[in-house]
From TrEMBL:
<feature type="coiled-coil region">
    <location>
        <begin position="286"/>
        <end position="334"/>
    </location>
</feature>
<feature type="coiled-coil region">
    <location>
        <begin position="85"/>
        <end position="112"/>
    </location>
</feature>
<feature type="region of interest" description="Disordered">
    <location>
        <begin position="47"/>
        <end position="76"/>
    </location>
</feature>
<keyword id="KW-0175">Coiled coil</keyword>
<feature type="compositionally biased region" description="Basic and acidic residues">
    <location>
        <begin position="54"/>
        <end position="63"/>
    </location>
</feature>
<feature type="coiled-coil region">
    <location>
        <begin position="423"/>
        <end position="471"/>
    </location>
</feature>
<protein>
    <submittedName>
        <fullName>Uncharacterized protein</fullName>
    </submittedName>
</protein>
């Protein structure tokens, strides 16, 4: 709200505070009465007391100047900061409705004092305007004094009595309320139209307090038209002096002092008495009206105080409305930032979704390749099983051949004496055996090549298996089983090769033994 001006110890209103003050003055009905002090008084700011100088300071060093201190202000911890946007909007709407109600009440209160004013003044008290003399106004000291003599005299010097004054309330203004006789005559002859006052059909005033009409004066059969009486101004100029206040009129003393003036007639005496009654009644009516005017002025003052309170409340509501507006603007900015973050997150989510889709495609391709590798591995396993069964069949046939050769050797050993005779046959048999041995060697070489190819295929399958292991972790157990199977197969193949070599060595040894024999 306050910013340092530059010089140490001097502060001034910030630009935002000046703008707020201008807006409050524009919104007020009477901008001249709205000051910065009223706005600050209505704001929720609690000033903290600054450091005070002790009484002992400055005694030892009277010339030392006290450093100028500046009172700080605590920022009010308003509960509005904890509210959400929807709650702030609802609170703002409710405050706006309250502000509209207060403004309507202010309009009504401003229009009511105008309706209570009288069009025609009944006395000097009622002729005072509310705008010129607001109620209550202490230390006014205004006295209207007595009316001018030329206005109320009846052609000669009229003796005056002390004027009647209304009951005073506090520092009220006292005025003379008893008009002279001529004013009462004119008052009786004049028809009044008072706005806001109720009268009966005959013209009697109905009070708003008692709700009872004022009783009409008893005429006793005489003419009620005061303009039709027989007296004239010439008769009044004869020197007859009447009092302007109630009391016995000294007619006899007046006529004794003025013997040349004839005595008034009975009709004039009755008209004077009736005029006195009317005067008394009008005076009572004027007193009642003055009392009501005092009550209305008191009510007007109360209403003005209420208007001031409502204006202060309106300023407070405007200030709170400004706080709500700032809070809403701040929340809207936060919402905009959050929406920007949400948009960025949505864009990132879309990009990540595209990446996930690509990864899913790659995963499907890898899964397809794993399935292809598994199919190839199954085919290789099937072919390897076929080769193994074929090798086993060849081995069985070789064993049968070895058994047969063994029988032949036994028969040849049994018929050793016939060997010489059967040299040609033995040579033929030897050649045939050599050819068979060569064939067996070729078969062994073929089996070695097949074994080498199988090992190469196994190595290739192992490489593929390593690739499959890198691509799919889930098939690890299956690959381990296949590794175990390949290891067992290699061991079996090695055992079969060893057995085949042993068999070949045995056959060669037997042949060498046969030849040696």
């Amino acid at each position: 709200m306050f910013v340092p001006e530059g010089t140490r110890g001097y502060y001034q209103l910030s630009s935002v505070s000046k703008k707020h003050v201008t807006e409050v003055k524009r919104a007020a009905s009477n901008p001249q009465q709205v000051t910065v002090e009223h706005i600050l008084r209505g704001a929720d700011i609690t000033a903290t007391a600054g450091p005070k100088r002790r009484a002992s300071d400055g005694i030892d060093n009277p010339r030392a100047k006290r450093p100028r201190t500046v009172r700080g202000s605590e920022i009010s911890k308003s509960p509005l900061n904890n509210l959400r946007k929807n709650e702030l909007l609802n609170e703002t709407k409710s405050l706006q409705l309250k502000l509209d109600v207060v403004q309507r009440e202010l309009k009504k209160l401003r229009s009511q004092p105008r309706e209570l004013s009288l069009d025609v003044p009944l006395s000097p008290l009622t002729s005072i305007d509310d705008e010129e003399f607001p109620f209550p106004e202490p230390d006014n000291g205004i006295d209207m004094g007595e009316p001018e003599p030329d206005r109320f005299e009846l052609g000669g010097p009229v003796p005056r009595t002390p004027p009647m004054t209304p009951p005073q309330r506090g520092n009220m203004i006292s005025f003379a309320t008893t008009p002279p006789a001529r004013a009462l005559i004119n008052l009786a002859q004049r028809t009044w139209s008072l706005p806001g006052l109720t009268r009966t059909q005959s013209g009697s005033y109905i009070s708003d307090i008692s709700k009872q009409p004022t009783p009409d004066p008893e005429v006793d059969g005489l003419a009620a038209d005061y303009g039709a009486r027989s007296s004239s101004i010439e008769e009044e100029d004869r020197g007859v002096n009447y009092l302007a206040t109630p009391g016995p009129t000294p007619l006899r003393a007046s006529f004794s002092r003025h013997p040349d003036v004839p005595a008034p007639s009975v009709a004039e005496e009755l008209s004077r008495q009736q005029l006195k009654k009317v005067e008394e009644m009008k005076r009572m009516e004027v007193d009642a009206l003055n009392g009501e005017v005092l009550e209305l002025r008191a009510e007007n003052a109360n209403l003005k105080s209420q208007v001031a309170e409502f204006e202060l409340k309106s300023l407070n509501l405007n200030a709170r409305l400004g706080q709500f507006t700032e809070q809403i603007a701040r929340l809207e900015s936060q919402v905009a930032v959050s929406e920007n973050f949400v948009q960025i997150a949505s864009n990132n989510l879309q990009s990540k979704s595209a990446e996930v889709a690509q990864l899913r495609v790659l995963f499907d391709e890898a899964k397809q390749s794993v399935q292809t590798s598994q199919t190839a591995l199954e085919e290789a396993s099937a072919s390897f099983a076929d080769n193994t069964s074929r090798l086993r069949a060849l081995l069985t046939s070789a064993e049968a051949e070895v058994a047969r050769l063994g029988l032949e050797i036994q028969s040849s050993m049994a018929t050793c004496a016939d060997l010489q005779e059967c040299v040609n046959r033995a040579n033929a048999d030897n050649a045939r055996c050599n050819s068979d041995l060569e064939a067996e060697r070729q078969r062994s070489d073929n089996l070695g090549r097949d074994l080498h190819n199988s090992r190469a295929k196994a190595d290739m399958l192992q490489a593929r298996l390593a690739d499959v292991e890198a691509q799919s972790i889930e098939d690890g157990q299956t690959i381990e089983n296949m590794k175990t199977f390949m290891t067992n197969f290699r061991e079996q193949q090695a055992q079969q090769a060893l057995q085949l070599e042993n068999a070949m060595n045995t056959i060669s040894a037997r042949r060498r033994g046969r030849y040696s024999v």
